[in-house]
Amino acid sequence: MFLKSSFVLSVIAAASYTCQAQSQLVASQIMASVINMNGIEANFMFAPLANNGGAQVWIEVKSGLTKKFAVSPTGGFEYHIHVKPVGPNNDCVATGGHLDPGNVGAAKCTAAKPDTCQEGDLSGKHGELKATESGSIPPQSYNDKYIRFSGETTTIAGRSVVIHNNGTRVACGNIYPFDQSSSPSTSAKGDSSAPDGQVTSLHSGTSSGGQVVATMAMGVAGAVFGALMAF
Ligand SMILES: [Cu+2]
């Protein structure tokens, strides 16, 4: 079920190692979140931009976000970075509130004024995940200049991504360093029943031959993501 995703993510990892010199992108700094619960499968990646310029965010929804399922009249699903990891038995409530180190609060956020948004309010800043007939959403990518990868109160590491359906938390997954040398179960600080189970498979089959070479040739991290969009 995760074959395609694992391949794609493996390509990112392999390419980012190779492109390190040009892009300053180090695989150990990339964060990822794999969501697989309640029929919702989604992958998120956060790659740091140079000079603490935020992150390039890559999102792929494999299944579950159907128009039929969507409650909101907008036909969209909100998603955020929440402060805590997923609780036992995929408990999304245990993730707490949104990542909001600046104490912005939830009230006034608009996409037109992203500085009024909580750092973790990804759909507030970039729009909701838009439901489709099939429930899968093609890969998308954007830059978010607010996301941070360090600082005890500011980093996204060790936190979680939560998808909502008109407010209700319907799926969640831990954010862990996408580093082949680290163990997701320790790095994600989550419980062993969280979606970490899939993480190991993301790291398998890294040498993907021609695709990796092609991606490497494109040079920079942004291009890596761009190439992946075409898959
Ligand atoms: Cu949320």
- The CATH top-level class label: Mainly Beta
Q: What molecules are bound to this protein?
A: copper (II) ion
The tally of domains stands at: 1
Structural class: alpha+beta
Give the H and E element order: HHEEEEEHEEEEHHHH
- CATH fold-level name: Immunoglobulin-like
In total, how many beta strands?
Answer: 9
Major beta sheet summary: 7 strands, antiparallel
Which spans of ≥5 residues are poorly predicted at pLDDT below 50?
1-8, 13-24, 180-231
Radius of gyration using CA atoms only? 16 Å
Strand order of the largest sheet: 5-8-9-1-2-3-7
Q: By CATH's scheme, which homologous superfamily applies?
A: Superoxide dismutase, copper/zinc binding domain
Which shape, going by the Cα principal axes? globular
**What percent strand?**
15-25%
CATH architectural arrangement = Sandwich
Domain Superoxide dismutase copper/zinc binding: 57-167
GO biological process, one term: superoxide metabolic process
Biased composition (Polar residues): 181-190
Keywords: Signal
Compact description:
The protein has 231 residues and is α+β, with helices and mostly antiparallel strands. It has helices at residues 3-18, 20-23, 122-126, 184-187, 199-202, 210-218, 221-229; strands at residues 31-37, 40-48, 55-63, 76-77, 79-82, 129-130, 137-144, 160-165, 168-177.
